[in-house]
Amino acid sequence: MANTLLSIQVIPKTPNNEDSIPYVDKAIEVIQQSGVKHQVNPLDTTMEGELTELLEVVRQMHEALIEAGSPSVISQIKIAHNPNGISMDKLTEKYRP
Prior knowledge:
Elements: E1 4-12, H1 21-34, E2 37-40, E3 45-49, H2 51-67, E4 73-81, H3 88-92
Antiparallel strand pairs: 1-3, 1-4, 2-3
């Protein structure tokens, strides 16, 4: 079982004040390609896995956005870590029909 949930909101600066959505899409693509369990939400994306693995995905996201032309990136991150295990499903099951 995974020991970490990490929610991330990327806020990329864009050249010439372009729309940031294509950059956000690029960041989500990095998450999808990583293979980690994730859920895209309206204001952030939550990933589930091992702490070091998820932090590596964050690093890759930032690098991909810089390579795509963003001059800088700010990320807001929330981390829930439990060595005994944690999951998105377990934390939200009581809210599902």
